[in-house]
Known about the structure:
2 domains, Neuraminidase, 1 helix, mainly beta, globular
Amino acid sequence: xxxxxxxxxxxIVVGLALTFLLTLFHTxxxxxxxxxxxxxxxxxxxxxxKEWGSKGIGDGQFLRPHDLEFDKNNxxxxxxxxxxxRIQVFDKNGTxxxxxxxxxxGDGQFLVPYGIDxxxxxxxxxxxxxxHRIQQFDSKGNxxxxxxxxxxxxxxxxxxxxxxxxxEVDKALKYVYVADSKNNRIQQFDTNGTFVKTxxxxxxxxxxxxxxxxxxxDSKGNxxxxxxxxERIQKFDSNWKPLLSWGSKGSSDNxxxxxxxxxxxxxxxxxxxxxxxxxxxSKQPRVLKFxxxxxxxxxxxxxxxxxxxIVDPEHLAIDNEGNVYVSDRHNNxxxxxxxxxxxxxxxxxxxxxYFSGGL
Length: 359
């Protein structure tokens, strides 16, 4: 009798436990909380899809491609052809559409163009590094305005530049931010080019910079800045209060070596081009992916000149589907990598030949 009662109690306990687990599983699915799942954009796997470009001055060729930027509808992919002193525009499949710019100091001309941003209206802003100025164009490349050093010489004065590497416009179309690299600061302007203020100075403390190269703004208005000199990424709130930073020089998953640029996708994940090219580093170029607080998610890429491989990754852009476009300034081409996931069950799918978080 006692044994029967004991068995009955055990059955009740097991039944309650199973009911709890099934209820928890159902609740997680209903609320999107299933901890074993990853969104497609979190995928630890990326696979090479396609590439285009070669060395030259023809349409679709490059002389050291640099920054890449999509318009908000992914209709145009703007590509900075640095030593070609022009901007080339493609569709997302790599079909050449049009180009603008040539070498010079006049309106609409460039001398070592570097960073590019497409604002909410579709206007194109270019950091004209060699001319130490910022230029604004419409979506078709027609010149609108310029500001900065109109004499073409570097300067440390407020509102002027020494080798500006990047430009970023906020979503409200109120302010323009410039990575004034060799002055080791960020400068803020209104969209008419009127100087507002200087942010930061040379150093390695929070809020200080050593060769800042990119500025990105996430969906909450937080700023991200990467620094070549400090080999780190800093995150700031919308008022430029330092929130956190990550990175140091090295080859581990949260280190960088000759870090080039960063980009954010629509989910605010942070992507980094890391050539690993300095002495003592791995010499294995890669793209690294982090969450919005600097936690490592994935890496992909391998060294080489063969199809799908990279030598010197410079910049990158992410389209609305999570595909990553990378410019390789050594191979003079743009490569496309896609996240790999199993659409049936949401789990990451590990397939032979795909990058799986390693090199």
